[in-house]
Amino acid sequence: MTVPTMAEMMAQGKQPEVLFWVGAAGSYDDRAKKISRAFVKILHAAKVDFAVLGTEESSTGDAAKRAGNEFLFQMQAMMNIELLNGYEVKKIVTCDPHSFNTLKNEYPELGGKYEVYHHTQFIQNLISEGRLNIDENTLQGKRVTFHDPCYLGRANEVYESPRDLIRRLGVNLTEMKRNKRTALCCGAGGAQMFKDAEAGDKEVNVLRTEDALETKPEIIATGCPYCNTMMTDGIKFKEKEAEVAVKDIAELIAEANNL
Amino acid sequence: MQYLPNILFAIALIAGISFFAINIRKLFRNINLGKDVDRTDNKSQRWKNMIKIALGQSKMVRRPFSGFLHVIVYVGFIIINIEVLEIIIDGLFGTHRIFQGFLGDAFYGFLIGTFEILAALVFVAVILFWTRRNIANIKRFLSREMKGWPKTDGNLILYFEMVLMTLFLVMNATDVPFQQAGIGNPISQFIAPLFDSFSAESLHLIERTAWWIHILGILVFLNYLYYSKHLHILLAFPNTFYANLKPKGQFNNLEAVTNEVKLMMDPDADPYATPEPGTEEVVPEKFGASEVTDLNWVQLLNAYTCTECGRCTSACPANLTGKKLSPRKIMMDTRDRLEEVGRNIDENNGTFKDDGKQLLNDYIKPEELWACTSCNACVEECPVNIDPLSIIMDMRRYLVMEESAAPQELNMMMTNIENNGAPWQYNQQDRLNWAKEE
C-alpha cells in the first residue's frame, strides 16, 4: 500500500492536499493499524493527494496532558508544531478523536493553526464533493449501533458526520439508550487506557458494551481506535465475539466498497 | 404606639437584608480568593447562555419530569415574589393590599389569583420533590456525599417552601374583606370554609399572624441561602454567564509551562544567564491545584452555585461503575474547603493562618481524581454549566508536576512518550510499519 511521507513529498517539491495524522494507536496497535489501512484505501479510492509524517510523527501529547503532565504535553506539542509548520501543513485529517481534539483545539494557542478533520467529517466532504460513493448494498440491512467517542461527541459536538456515513451504508442504525450528548464513555479517555481502573464494581467498557448489546447489534461502529479496543474487549468479556463485530466506520466503508 | 408595627417591620426588613448583604460580601471575598481568569470575551454569547440556560431553564428540562417540576417551582418563586413587594409596602406604611387600589379590582384579582394557583402548584411540586428525595429510592439522592447535612439541607428547603406557600394561602383565606370581594381567591376560597367557625377577631388575628410569619419566613429563607446549597437561585445567573465557551474537549494550556518549555527548546537561551533585575525574587508559580486558592474564581463560583442535584454524578462513568469519584462531591468538597478557608480568614483578622489542611487529600483523594475518564459527561449534564472536570484536571496537574505522584502505569506511559513519542514502548523508527503490513 502506497503511503507517501511529507519528507518524500518535500523532496519532490510537492505539497499534498492533506496530512493524514495517524496517531500512536493507528501506528502501533494491531487492531488500530487496520483502521489506518482502511482509511488509506478510502483516500486512494477518492484519489486524495495525501501524506503522513511517518517516522517523524510523535505523540500529540493528549494522554500526557489528560494525565496532568502539562510539561510533557507542551514539549510534544511544540516539537510537532515545529515539524508541521516546517512542512507548511494547512489541513490535517485523523482517525483518532483525541488527536483531532488536541490538534484542533489545543495546538493553536501554541502556534499550530490547522484545519483539522476527523476522518468521518473528511469522508463526508469527499462524498459531497462527488469524489466518493458508498455502496449501500454490501452491508444492507445489517443491524448497526454507533458508540460516540467522547472527544468527538461531547468534546467537539460532532454527532452527525459518523451517523450520516453509517446511514449511507444502507444499514439499520439503532441508537443506544445513552447516545450523542448523553453517550457513556468507553472507559479509555483521560489516560485511563494506560492504567488499571480504580476499585469499583464494574469496568466502564463492560457497562458500555451492555448498552450496545441491548440494541441487539451485528456491528458496533466506532470512530476512535481507543473506543474500538474497549468495545472489542467488552464483547470478548461478554463472549459475544461470534455474533457481534466492532468496526471503525472507515473499515465499514472500505468493506462496503470492496476496497 | 400606632406606628409600632411599622417600626418593627422596618427593623426586621433592614436586619434581614443587612445580614444577607454582610454574608454576600463574604461570598464575594471567598470567590475572589481564586486565581484570575479572563471571561470577558464574547459577551453576546454569554448573555445568550444566561438567558437560555439560567432564565430559560433549557438544560433542566432535558430530564422532563424533574425539569417540569422545577420549572413550576422556579416560575412560582419568581412571580409570587411580586406579592412580596406589596407586603413590604404594606408593612412599612401600614397599608393593606395597597396594589388593589392602584391596579383596580380586576387586574389585582387576576394577579393574586395567578399567585394563588402558582402557590398551590408549587406546593404540589415541592411535595413530589420531597417524595423523590426521601421515598422514591432515586440513586443520585442516596450517594455517599448526600448523607447528613446535605440531605437535611435539601429537605429544609422543601419544608420552607411548603410553609411559605401555606402561609400565603392562609393569609388570603382569613382576609375577610378579600374573600368577600371574591376576586383573586381561586384557591383560598376553598381554604376559607375551614375557618368558618372563627370569630371576626380571631380571623383577623390569624390573618395578621400568617402575614407576619410569611414575610419573616421569607427574610429568614433569604438568609438561609448563604448557609445552604440553595444559593443556586441567585448564582445560576452569573455562573452560566461566566461559564467556559470553548469546546469542552479543549483544556487550557498552562502559560507558566509554556514559558518554561519555550526556554527549554530555545537554542539561544542561556541557562546560566543572570536573571533580569527585579525577577530574582519571583517565586516560581505552582503548577496545578492542591488548594482552593490555586483554583480560579470561576471554579470557586461553580462550587457555591452547585445545588447538589447530582445529575453529573448520575452520568459519570466512573461513578456508575462503583468508583469513588463523584463530580458532585468534587464541587461540594471545594465549597466546604473554601468556606473553611473563609472562616479561618475571618477569625484571624483578614489573613489565612495555616491549618495544616488542604483541598487535596483532606477533602478530595487522589483515588477519586485518577478515576476520571475526562469524558465531559458531568459538564454536559450540569443544568447551570458547572465544570467539575476542570478542577479534577488542575488537581491531577498538581499531583503529577509538583508531587510526581501519578499511578505507576501512567509514569511508564509518560516515559514512553518522552523517549519514543508514543505511549507504548515501540521504536519511533517503526512508526510507519503499518503501511507495509497486511
Account of the protein in words:
The complex is a heterodimer of chains A (259) and B (438). Chain A has two domains: 6-127, Rossmann fold (3-Layer(aba) Sandwich), CATH 3.40.50; 134-256, Rossmann fold (3-Layer(aba) Sandwich), CATH 3.40.50. Helix content of chain A is 43%, strand content 11%. Chain A is built from eleven helices and eight strands. In chain A, the strands form two sheets. In chain A, strands 2-1-3-4 form a four-stranded parallel sheet. A four-stranded parallel sheet of chain A has the order 6-5-7-8, sandwiched between helices. By secondary structure, chain B is an all-alpha fold. In chain B, 62% of the residues lie in helices and 0% in strands. Chain B starts with a helix and ends in an 18-residue tail after the last helix. The interface between A and B is large, with 72 and 70 residues.
Features:
heterodimer, A: 259 residues, alpha/beta, Rossmann fold, 2 domains, four-stranded parallel β-sheet, 11 helices, 11% strand, B: 438 residues, mainly alpha, Fumarate Reductase Cytochrome B subunit, 62% helix, elongated
SSE map:
The complex is a heterodimer of chains A (259) and B (438).
Chain A lengths: L5 H6 L6 E4 L1 H6 L1 H16 L4 E2 L10 H6 L2 H17 L4 E4 L2 H10 L8 E4 H10 L14 E4 L13 H9 L3 E2 L30 H10 L5 E4 L2 H13 L7 E4 H8 L3
Parallel strand pairs in A: 1-2, 1-3, 3-4, 5-6, 5-7, 7-8
Chain B lengths: L3 H28 L11 H13 L8 H30 L4 H37 L14 H25 L2 H6 L6 H4 L8 H25 L7 H11 L12 H11 L31 H9 L5 H5 L1 H4 L6 H21 L11 H4 L3 H5 L6 H5 L6 H15 L5 H13 L18
InterPro entries (chain A): Cys_rich_dom, HdrC_iron-sulfur_subunit
Protein name (chain A): (Fe-S)-binding protein
GO molecular function, one term (chain A): metal ion binding
